[in-house]
Amino acid sequence: MKSLDNCLCKLISRIEKGTSITVSLASSNTITLTFIKFNPINGCIQGIDSNGHIIIIDCKKVESIIVSQNRNTDREEIATQLQIPWSITKQRNSFYITERAGTIVQINKKNMNRKKLILTRQVHHEGEGGLLGMVLAPDFHRTRNAYVYHTYQENGNTFQENGNILNRVIQITETRQGWVEKTVLLDKIPGSITHNGGRIKIGPDRHLYVTTGDAREAEKAQDLQTLHGKILRMTLEGKIPSDNPFPNSYIYSYGHRNPQGLGFAENGNLYSSEHGPAAHDEINQIEKGKNYGWPVIIGDETSPNMVSPLYQSGDDTWAPSGLSVHRDAIYVAGLRGQQILKFSISIKNIETFFEGEGRLRDILIEDNNLYVITNNTDGRGSPRPGDDRLLKIRLK
Ligand SMILES: [Ca+2]
Fold first, then answer.
1. Catalytic residue positions?
2. Is residue 121 domain-resident?
3. 354 CA distance to ligand 1 centroid (A)?
4. Residue at which a domain ends, from 308, 331, 359
5. N or C: which end of the chain has fewer CB within 10 A?
6. Distance, CA 42 to ligand 1 centroid (Å)?
7. Per residue in 197-226, pLDDT tens?
8. Model pTM?
9. How far, in Å, is the centroid of ligand 1 from the Cα of 52?
10. Rounded Cα distance, 191 and 163, in Å
């Protein structure tokens, strides 16, 4: 204890058993543990790592300790050192996580394998654009096929007002060298330095649902002749399904500003989250052919033939991104809000489910486990040692 920094001593003595701590070591490694105890005789911390192993750390080797303020201490760190991660997908024991600059990381237990995309159009990473949503094909285990949404440039080198930034949905295949472009499902989706939408999900009907942003042209969210501010529906081959609401159109719903969350409930209901203009963020139930109001109505405002949100944030800002539906609840990742919100559908109640890890980007729920990625490395957050991370939280 004599050689231990006095502040560190005081901090350690206040940590309660069961608290999640992230320890930075002099060797520049970081490790996250569930704290058990501190032994003042040998000056060592005892804790449990994400694999359930008991770890003993000599405090003389500790540079710093971050004590998590999580309300939910039942969480594990699955991966660290992610680079601006955007979406989580999972197949058996492997996670596939997109990173905005244009890579996909496979995480299997403690192994991380980062692969590039080999494309006919480069991923354009600027502002909120880049490699965004991803889903694995239903037959991924056999074909290694997946679908991604990414920003690209039609021409030129820099962003020009309402200029040449676009988005597209493509099918890619995993190979040893990287993820190789296979087919283009839809390109020329309006893009901008912000408001690119970008979440994609496969529905129970095996069709692909895609969120697009208004690309900073708000009024076009109401225009059924453009793809600004819409939720699209297409077959896995990129065709327009014959039962889409508008003839010969990908549009499934419209009047959106910048939806980045999309998820299906077990009963097939579709939910989405979107960013409001100044606060007034929204959670919506998405129904075929409906108009969600932007920019005509915001918050709880109403208008004939427009759908007001299931819930909206009022004067608070969540900046909601990915969501996942589990039983009666929608779990929404908050960027600015830095929390996971839990919205109970039947009673329309909202509460903070998890916080204390900074900005959060996407959520995936499987087998009663909630997985979340942080978003602290894109220049808008305050990265900590190990950021960005993939965390696992056990649902009660
Ligand atoms: Ca709305």
1. 195
2. yes
3. 26
4. 308
5. C
6. 59
7. 999 999 999 999 999 999 999 999 999 999
8. 0.82
9. 44
10. 9
